Amino acid sequence: MLKNVKILGLIVFILLFAMCNQKSKTDSGEETILKGKIEVTVDETIRPIVEDQIAVFEGTYYDAKIVLKSKSEAELINDLLNKKTNVVITARDLTQAEKEKFIKLKIKPRVTPFATDAIAFISNKNNNDTLIALKSVIDFMKGIPTPKIKGLVFDNPNSSTVRYIKNLAKVKDIPAEGVFSFKTNEEVIKFVSENDGMIGVVGVNWLSQPSPKMQDIIHNLNVLYVKGLKDDNYYSPTQNDIAEQKYPLARELYIINCQGYTGLGMGFASFIAGDIGQRIVLKSGLMPIKTPGRKLQIRNRIINDKE
């Protein structure tokens, strides 16, 4: 009888220890879709909209922490392929070759489109001509002298804007002369505001949501109207022209999650693609993938608050 009691006591002790151990694992900050800490790498050309999304996400889910790093498109894709990061936000989808690399690693990337962005051309305020033909930019990238363009200014040789314009021009390398690059869109904006004749190539999000220190600089710029290759009209990178698919330099934005498990990356992607995230996109001046609905309250009579 005493032996049975000892055995029963040992079993109870083991069960209690297992329960306490499981509880300690849960309380230790185990990652879920709404809890934990992850690092997200963003294309530098679209950083402002992602900063807004993170601020609201963390303000809604207090146990979630997202560490944001910005890099050029080529750098962040390379980090993703080499498993240095698992979640990126970029201005292009993965290529078929990149997807096949993940298949070999037995990881299925979750790709979520969440907004339509645009590449904008900017010039100094002293430049009275606010029109530019996309063909002129393409010719300049091919090394053909163009009277209207003294120089093109990009943020980074490895950026998504460089890749986009190179693809349009169908050139492998940028010209040796007349093309300048820095590290960030902020540096491009500042340089163009101080130098006449230069055409800056930036993500429109930096213009629609300038940081406090950039607001005065933005006032010294013209955002150019662009004539596409198939249309004689000029359009600006406004939300309306992007929505109507008139602006020729629009591009979709994606969050790519390669965590390989149900974690905070999935939760953040669902948030961005959800109602709140899409409203943040709409307010930013970009075009959401799904236009948030609006609830209308219909009343039979007007209520006078002063009564």
From TrEMBL:
Domain PBP: 35-274
Protein name: Phosphate ABC transporter substrate-binding protein
Pfam family, one: PBP_like_2
Signal peptide: none
Keywords assigned: Signal
Domain of life from the UniProt record: Bacteria
PANTHER family registered for this protein in UniProt: PERIPLASMIC PHOSPHATE BINDING COMPONENT OF PHOSPHATE ABC TRANSPORTER (PTHR30570), PHOSPHATE-BINDING PROTEIN PSTS (PTHR30570:SF1)
The keyword Signal belongs to this UniProt entry's keyword annotation: yes
Organism: Flavobacterium cheongpyeongense
Entry annotated with the keyword Signal: yes
